[in-house]
Each structure stands twice: as structure tokens, then as C-alpha cells.
RNA sequence: GCCCCGGUAGUCCAACGGCAGAGACACGGUGCUCAAACCACCGCCAGUGUGGGUUCGAAUCCCACCCGGGGCACCA
């Protein structure tokens, strides 16, 4: 990182007694107020005045992998501006904190250290809690929860069983993503570019029997319910979710395949272009799907097996390579095109995905580049059925995908409208019973089983006689057995399976010998409902107290990283809808507004051990103090933009805070002095700043809020040194406003200022200054006179001036007349009281 | 390939379609000092990525392109 001017201590001292500007001792101030706040407990939800509006300020709970880092510092600083602002506005605020404390890092650490993951986990939680307190986030510390506490995961398990009762949790045997490094399966959402989202290992496939949540049942609602979030969620997140859900309209079309045995088998394909059915000249099925093996002609079976082996060997990463030549194998059977009656070849290829649509496609090479590449590779026929006016793809091997006039398409010929073409074909297919209009989603069900130890056990008992038996509710939680060290080593099956005493139980239904399900749940299950639990963390009659949830939810503001766009945020929305359908809540979206903060990077790149460009939060706080670090984070730029720490100057932030603090020592009037006799210009500046600050916080322009506060500090400094002087009541009013504004960002110095101004703690609950509207009214405003858009004169006018008067004044101005130079005025645009534009 | 977000002084960033500069960093100067740091004051630097369009007027709206960052991607 860039050289920063670090002093030994965050305060500058001189060795001799030379005159110097007063500074406060950052460390002493932090120690002092920590204790006071611990006693006052000022942020307890429910502590606002009776009848206060309730606001839920939520921030994504941390994973306890170590101490807090720069990223936490940023997200919490931004989040806390909003939470503290709401308190100042008199709202009742719920600002809870807890830990997402199940997960692999703790388990891996436990294997290394030969201990139980709880040791590492709970030690880190204490470290982070202490750091959060030092960092002065306005949490309600009475609501702490950890997802790894049995009293929490009891309800995670309970929810799983409720989902299962509703048919939303089920087990199936199918190919799954397998991380060979973490030795567990992964959800689709956790596979990024063919690699494990957590560890980066290349993901392979396995066939396993696993638990799934039926999130696909909610695909359409997850899509539809985004509409009201349009103005309060980042469009990027909405776009990513839409993309992930991947709705596409089209048709299922049935093709009859004549098998080698002479039997006929109907295979359904999904297409978004049923209108091009007349151009379907061959069919392709996913090579790795069962279907391929079932329909292949005997003499082609060996070739198919060889091909499938080849495909299996290549990882998803290889498959992602663009411009890879098309590969495939002829299955030796033919299908009947349902509209043309033609016999077309059936191939297997890896460019058709087994788990999208039906795993089989009709290939229309003329109008799909992938199909065309395949046709070219294997010499399959190409037939144009839409004339787009472009060169014929039969000759150019450039597929045309746009609109055009149908040709070679029987009844569609001559039609020029795609929508009509699609509608007509679907109608025809439905009449004949060979197809139907349909909607397809890219979203897959959520695979929730994990073959690891440190998670919530799946509360199911497998009995040979009774099958899957849910653990009775009164036996929840199913607690983890106390395993440690090598017992936890990943071996491809859950470590729980080897815990004989734990896994062998009697069946709750028949009493016979049975085994517990030895998998644990994906930790994203834990985090899909923690924000409900926060509303009543000690509740024992259910996952949450319905009244408490009614009081606080949906969360008014959720702050966290965009990396959860299609993971946590999608899953939480799904959980909320299910809870709604269960009748447990009366809303369907958990988070009314979402803010994605940017990342803290260094020298243009993400901080990482390998780059050696990490910045240590603890060291930064030791060098500059909590307030300066928080201020730097908030002032850096718009909250959603990345912060390059190399461009930041925490030293400058500290300098500003010292400057603001100094003001509080210069105020000589008594606390409670009425400001009405104070200097009007300074009063106007104060009230304008507060009015604007209100707007700025509410529109999340926190960096500008800081700039406005700096401006007020500068103005007040001038008023003290070369204006009305330190005794003027307006100076007190201004400095008190500065303290309150700063309390959102720099709580320690704000508190110190508040005390020096003669007030009792805590400034955090002092209340937002009331704006005197009359002080916002300006006696004169500057009107700009433009000639052809160029400024030629400025006039001081009344804000109430009429358009006619302003025009007259403008035309009479000497500079304007000179600029006009006798030219003919064609038009005069008047926007009283601010502007006149004369067009010549 | 498709979809988002961004491009304004040396740097980080402001600017309801209406004076391009709020704030800060860095830099320079003056005062204070033996000197420096600190502090106070003053100064400094851009016409808004490029090309068109709309408009009385565009950093802002529209179109095309360039550059940077991110997301999705053999999704039928």
C-alpha cells in the first residue's frame, strides 16, 4: 500500500511546550466511551418513545473465520449510518448481530488442530464481537444468535421437516456437483465457472441420492415478486436473479423415435422457436442423459459409451471453452418430424445439456448457430424456413436468427410475424396432440445435503421397514455428536456416518433398528431464516414469535455484498414465500430495500495473501482510530463503489475529526442557549446543512453527507475566528449539529464533542436537529443570464421575482446588451428566479 | 456473444437538463516557529472517454463506438 503518515499514536504530540493546536487522544476517548455505552445500552430495540415507528436495520451476518477485516469495516460503517440515523430520527430500531457459524473453515481448522469445530468457531465469535464493540456499531447486543447453537438449529431442522411435509424437501438419486477438495456435493448456485465457489477446485459429477428443496415450484413467484423491489434493490441483483431463474417461453414438441427393436418411443424436446419446426432436420439428445443409452441402436451402443466416457472425463471447465468444435455420435435411429412427417437422424452430443429443458432438442441448423456448426461438422442437412433477407445459411453457414418471412413451412409460408408463427404452430401441435406451449426455467432445485460434519443434521431416520421417517418434533434438535480431529476427515461420506452411537437409533415409528441420515444441511439453509429469528431470538415455541415478526419485518434496509445475489438472497426470498404459504407470516418478500456495498481493494486489485497487498483492519484502527477508519470508508465515494485503499487518506480523516472536535472547545455559550439571537448567516448554513443531510442519508449518498458536514465545520471555524465569535449562540447551534451529524459516522468523537458542549451522553440518542424552514428561505438568489447558452451576467434577485420582471432586468443589463450587440432576439427562455437564456 | 455498472482536475469524488466544483488528498505560498510538524489563511490544476442526435441550453437524455470493472454464457 501507499506510504501513509503514521504517527506512533493517533494523536500528535510535541516534545517541547511549543504552541500547537489542541488534539484529543483517540485511544483514551475510545476506552472512555466504550465503558459508558456498555452501561447505557443505548441501542436496545424497543427503547424508543412509545408509538415510534419500527425500523429493522439488517446487515449480512458474518462468518467467524477470524477477526474482522477491511470488508467488514466498510459494510458495517455504511450500515451503521442508516441505523444510527433512524435512532436520531426517533424511530425504534432493530439492529441485531449474530454469526453464520456452521461451515467448512471451522471444520478444516478442527481437523488440523485435533479439536471440535466449536472451539475455533466460538473463539472467533468472541474475537469478532469484541471488535464490533470497539468499532462501535450500534447493535442490540441482547439478540446475539449463532446458527450452530442447538437452540437455533433446532428450528432449522423443524423448518426442514415442515418443508418436507409440504412436499418441498425431497430426496432423489441423480447426477450432482461434487467438490473433490471439500469432499461434498454442492448446489448449482455454488458452482462458479465449473469450480467450487468456496475453494476453487474443479467440480466433477457424481450420482448420489440427495436432499433437495423444491425451489423450482417458486420460480415464477420469485420472478414476479421482484417487481416491487425494482426501485429499492440494485438493478444488478434483480438482473442476476432473473438471469439465474432463466424463464423462457416456448413449446414442448413430441417426436416419435423408431427404435431398433421396431418399437416407437416418444421423446419431447423443448424449443423457444416452435415456429421453425419445419426446419428441424435432425434431433440431438444429451449424451450423458439416460435417454441416449435407452434409444441407441445396438450397433451404435459401443460408440456412444466411448463418447460418454470422453465427455465425462472433460470437466465443466473444458466444456466452457468457446469455439470448441462440436462433437457427437449418431445413435442410429430416426425420429419423425411431427409437422413434415420426415424421418430425421437422432444424435447424442455434449452441447445439449441433460439438466436443461428435456435434455433433448430439435436441431434447426438454419436458424441456430450451434445446430448449424453441428450440421456442418457431420454433414447433416440444413433447411432455411425463415427468409430474413440475409444470405442463405444453407450456403453461408451463418445462422439467421432474426425475424423474416416463413418459407418451406407449409401453412406458415408467407407469414412475416414471429409471434404469430409461434402461436399458429403451437395451436396446430395442440390440436394434433403432438406438442404444447410451455414455459421453461433454468433454475434447478436446491441441493441441500452436505457430506460434512459442521452443519445442522438432517432430522430424518432411515428405517428398512418404514423408509424415511422424520424425527418427531419433540426430539428436536438432533444434536451433533462430539467429534474432533481425524474423525472429521472428509471421506466422501459424512463423518457422522461413522459415529456409530449417534447414527444407530430405533425407528420412531416401528421401534426397529434404523439409522439417522448422516448428512448435514448446506449452511445456506441456516442463513435463509436468521433474520426472522432476530425478531425473537429467545422464542421457544417456534422458529420465531409471529407478533415480533409482524412488528419488525420486512427488513427496511439490508446491507451486504453482491456475492450473495443468487445464493443467500434468492434462498431467503424462497424461504419467506414458503413461510407465507405456511401461514406463518403475512408478507412475501423479506427485504424491502437492499444496498450492496462495494469491495475494499488495494492498488486496483482485491486484497489477497498471494498478492501480499492485504491491509490489516486492526493496524489501521491502531494507527488512526475507529472514527477515522469509519469516516474514510463512508467518505470514500458512493457506497456501492469499490474503495481502493491506496487512494484513501485515513490521516486526512483523522485531521478533519480533530478539527471538528476543536470547535466543541471553542463554544463559550451555555448549553440550552436559545439560538434565535444568533448570527443569521451561520444559522442558515446550519439549517441548510441539516435539511440537506436528511435527504442525503435517505438517498444513501453518505459520502456527500460527510462533505456537507466538513463544509459546516469550515463555516463554523470562520464564524468563530473571523465572524460573530465563539460566544454567538449560532456557533453553539452549529457545533451541536456537527456533533449529531458526526454521530452517524464517528461515534466516539461525536460523543466527546457532545460532552464538551455540556451535554449528558449519549449524543447517539440526542435527536435529529429540527430544521427551521424560515432559515432555508434566501432573501436573494443569483439569477444567471445566458446569451446562446453562455453566461453573460449574474443578477441578485428576489426568489419570488416574476418571469416578466426577471426578463426585463436581464434585457436591461449592460453586459447582456454588449453581448447581444444589437442582434435580433429570437427567443427568451426564463426560468425564474434562477435563469434567463436569450437566443439570437 | 448477451446483460449490468462506471469513465469529470495529478488522485479520490460532487454537480433536480440551467454558472462544470461541494468536499477531500497531493502540491505550492503566506502567517506562527530558530526550523519543522501542527494550526490558520491563500493559491493551484479539468470543460466532463470519442463521434453523432434531441434541446433555447447536455457531464446529465437518446444512438453508435472506445476503455475499465462485474455478471451470465453450447440454456435450445
What labels would you give this structure?
840 residues; alpha+beta; 7-stranded mixed sheet; 4-stranded parallel sheet; 27 helices; 36% helix; disordered N terminus; RNA-binding
First CA to last CA: what distance?
56 Å
Mean pLDDT rating: 91
Task: Name the assembly state.
Answer: single chain
Low-confidence stretches: 1-20
Number of helical regions: 27
Question: Could you walk me through the main structural features you see in this protein, from its secondary elements to its overall organization?
Answer:
Strand 10 and strand 11 form a beta hairpin. The chain contains 27 helices and 34 strands. It is globular, with a radius of gyration of 34 Å. By secondary structure, the protein is of the alpha+beta class. Strands 10, 11, 12, 13, 14, 15 and 18 form a 7-stranded mixed beta sheet that branches. A 4-stranded parallel beta sheet has the order 2-1-26-27, covered by helices on one side. The chain starts with 25 loop residues before the first helix and ends with a strand. It binds one RNA strand of 76 nucleotides through helix 7, strand 11, strand 15, helix 11 and strand 30.
List the helices and strands and how they pair.
Elements: H1 26-40, E1 54-59, H2 70-88, E2 92-94, E3 98-99, H3 104-113, H4 117-134, E4 145-146, H5 150-165, E5 169-179, E6 184-186, E7 191-192, E8 195-196, E9 204-213, H6 219-224, H7 235-245, E10 248-258, E11 264-271, E12 282-286, H8 290-295, H9 298-313, H10 316-320, E13 328-336, E14 343-349, E15 360-363, H11 369-378, E16 386-387, H12 393-396, E17 405-406, H13 418-432, E18 435-440, E19 446-447, E20 449-450, E21 460-463, E22 467-470, H14 500-503, E23 504-506, E24 513-516, E25 520-521, H15 523-526, H16 530-533, H17 546-552, E26 557-560, H18 568-581, E27 594-596, E28 600-602, E29 605-606, H19 617-624, H20 626-635, E30 643-644, H21 650-666, H22 680-698, H23 702-722, H24 729-742, H25 747-756, E31 781-787, E32 790-797, H26 803-812, H27 814-820, E33 827-831, E34 835-839
Parallel strand pairs: 1-2, 1-26, 3-4, 12-14, 26-27, 28-30, 31-34
Antiparallel strand pairs: 5-6, 5-9, 7-8, 9-19, 10-11, 10-13, 10-18, 12-15, 13-14, 16-17, 20-25, 21-22, 21-24, 23-24, 28-29, 31-32, 33-34
The chain binds one RNA strand of 76 nucleotides through helix 7, strand 11, strand 15, helix 11 and strand 30.
Amino acid at each position: 500500500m501507499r506510504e501513509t503518515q503514521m504517527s506512533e499514536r493517533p494523536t500528535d504530540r510535541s516534545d517541547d511546550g511549543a504552541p500547537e493546536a489542541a488534539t484529543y487522544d483517540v485511544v483514551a476517548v475510545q476506552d472512555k466511551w466504550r465503558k459508558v455505552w456498555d452501561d447505557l445500552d443505548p441501542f436496545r430495540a424497543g427503547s424508543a418513545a412509545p408509538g415510534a415507528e419500527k425500523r429493522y436495520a439488517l446487515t449480512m451476518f458474518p462468518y467467524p473465520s477470524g477477526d474482522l477485516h477491511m470488508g467488514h469495516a466498510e459494510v458495517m460503517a455504511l450500515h451503521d449510518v442508516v441505523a444510527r440515523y433512524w435512532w436520531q430520527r426517533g424511530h425504534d430500531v432493530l439492529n441485531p448481530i449474530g454469526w453464520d457459524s456452521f461451515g467448512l473453515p471451522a471444520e478444516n481448522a478442527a481437523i488440523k488442530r485435533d479439536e471440535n469445530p466449536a472451539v475455533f468457531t466460538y473463539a472467533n465469535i468472541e474475537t469478532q464481537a469484541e471488535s464490533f464493540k470497539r468499532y462501535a456499531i450500534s447493535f442490540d447486543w441482547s439478540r446475539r444468535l449463532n446458527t450452530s447453537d442447538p437452540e437455533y438449529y433446532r428450528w432449522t431442522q423443524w423448518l426442514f421437516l415442515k418443508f418436507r411435509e409440504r412436499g418441498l424437501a425431497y430426496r432423489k438419486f441423480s447426477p450432482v456437483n461434487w467438490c473433490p477438495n471439500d469432499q461434498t456435493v454442492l448446489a448449482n448456485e455454488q458452482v462458479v465457472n465449473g469450480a467450487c465457489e468456496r475453494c476453487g477446485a474443479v467440480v466433477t459429477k457424481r450420482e448420489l441420492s440427495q436432499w433437495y428443496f423444491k425451489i423450482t415450484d417458486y420460480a415464477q413467484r420469485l420472478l414476479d415478486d421482484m417487481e416491487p423491489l425494482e426501485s429499492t434493490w440494485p438493478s444488478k441483483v434483480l438482473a442476476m436473479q432473473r438471469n439465474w431463474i432463466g424463464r423462457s417461453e416456448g413449446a414442448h414438441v413430441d417426436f416419435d423415435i423408431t427404435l431398433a427393436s421396431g418399437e416407437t418411443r416418444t421423446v419431447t424436446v423443448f424449443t423457444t422457436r416452435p415456429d421453425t419446426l419445419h426446419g428441424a432436420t435432425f434431433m440431438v439428445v444429451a449424451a450423458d442423459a439416460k435417454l441416449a443409452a435407452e434409444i441407441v441402436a445396438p450397433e451404435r451402443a459401443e460408440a456412444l459409451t466411448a463418447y460418454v466416457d470422453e465427455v465425462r472425463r472433460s470437466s465443466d471447465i473444458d466444456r466452457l471453452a468457446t469455439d470448441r468444435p462440436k462433437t457427437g455420435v449418431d445413435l442410429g435411429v430416426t425420429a419423425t418430424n411431427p409437422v413434415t412427417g420426415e424421418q430425421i437422424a437422432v444424435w447424442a452430443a455434449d452441447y445439449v445439456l441433460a439438466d436443461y429443458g428435456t435434455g433433448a432438442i430439435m436441431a434447426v441448423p438454419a436458424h441456430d448457430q450451434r445446430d448449424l456448426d453441428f450440421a456442418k461438422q457431420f454433414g447433416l442437412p440444413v433447411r432455411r424456413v425463415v427468409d430474413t433477407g440475409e444470405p442463405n445459411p444453407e450456403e453461408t453457414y451463418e445462422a439467421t436468427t432474426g425475424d423474416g418471412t416463413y418459407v418451406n413451412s407449409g401453412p406458415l409460408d408467407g407469414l412475416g410475424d414471429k409471434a404469430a408463427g409461434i402461436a399458429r404452430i403451437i395451436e396446430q401441435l395442440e390440436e394434433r396432440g403432438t406438442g404444447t406451449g410451455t414455459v421453461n426455467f433454468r433454475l434447478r432445485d436446491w441441493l441441500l445435503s452436505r457430506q460434512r460434519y459442521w452443519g445442522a443434521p438432517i432430522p430424518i431416520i432411515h428405517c428398512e421397514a418404514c423408509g424415511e421417517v422424520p424425527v418427531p418434533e419433540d426430539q428436536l434438535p438432533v444434536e451433533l455428536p462430539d467429534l474432533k480431529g481425524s474423525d472429521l476427515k472428509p471421506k466422501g461420506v459424512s463423518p457422522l456416518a461413522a459415529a456409530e452411537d449417534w447414527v444407530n437409533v430405533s425407528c420412531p415409528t416401528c421401534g426397529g433398528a434404523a439409522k439417522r441420515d448422516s448428512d448435514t444441511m448446506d449452511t445456506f439453509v441456516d442463513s435463509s431464516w436468521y433474520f426472522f429469528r432476530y425478531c425473537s431470538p429467545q422464542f421457544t415455541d417456534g422458529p420465531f414469535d409471529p407478533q415480533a415478526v409482524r412488528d419488525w419485518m420486512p427488513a427496511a434496509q439490508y446491507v451486504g455484498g453482491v456475492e450473495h445475489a443468487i445464493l443467500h438472497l434468492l434462498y431467503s426470498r424462497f424461504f419467506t414465500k414458503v413461510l407465507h404459504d405456511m401461514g406463518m407470516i403475512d408478507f412475501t418478500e423479506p427485504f424491502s430495500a437492499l444496498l450492496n456495498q462495494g469491495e475494499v481493494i488495494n492498488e486496483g486489485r482485491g486484497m489477497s495473501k498471494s498478492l501480499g497487498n492485504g491491509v490489516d483492519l486492526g493496524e489501521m484502527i491502531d494507527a488512526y482510530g475507529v472514527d477515522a477508519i469509519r469516516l474514510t470508508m463512508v467518505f470514500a465515494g458512493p457506497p456501492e463503489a469499490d474503495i481502493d485503499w491506496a487512494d484513501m487518506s485515513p490521516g486526512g480523516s483523522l485531521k478533519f475529526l480533530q478539527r471538528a472536535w476543536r470547535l466543541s472547545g471553542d463554544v463559550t455559550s451555555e448549553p440550552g442557549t436559545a439560538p434565535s439571537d444568533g448570527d443569521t448567516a451561520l444559522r442558515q448554513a446550519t439549517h441548510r446543512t441539516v435539511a440537506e443531510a436528511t435527504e442525503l442519508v435517505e438517498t444513501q449518498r453518505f459520502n456527500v453527507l460527510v462533505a456537507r458536514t466538513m463544509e459546516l465545520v469550515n463555516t463554523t471555524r470562520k464564524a468563530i475566528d473571523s465572524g460573530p465569535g465563539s460566544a454567538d449562540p449560532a456557533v453553539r447551534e452549529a457545533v451541536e449539529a456537527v456533533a449529531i451529524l458526526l454521530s452517524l459516522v464517528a461515534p466516539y468523537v461525536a460523543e466527546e464533542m457532545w460532552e464538551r458542549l455540556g451535554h449528558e451522553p449519549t449524543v447517539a440518542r440526542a435527536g435529529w436537529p429540527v430544521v427551521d424552514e424560515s432559515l432555508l428561505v434566501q432573501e436573494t438568489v443569483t439569477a444567471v443570464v445566458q446569451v446562446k447558452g453562455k453566461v453573460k451576467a449574474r443578477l441578485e434577485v428576489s426568489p419570488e421575482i416574476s418571469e416578466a420582471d426577471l426578463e426585463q432586468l436581464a434585457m436591461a443589463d449592460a453586459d447582456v446588451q454588449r453581448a447581444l450587440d444589437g442582434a435580433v432576439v429570437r427567443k427568451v427562455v426564463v426560468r425564474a428566479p434562477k435563469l434567463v437564456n436569450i437566443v439570437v
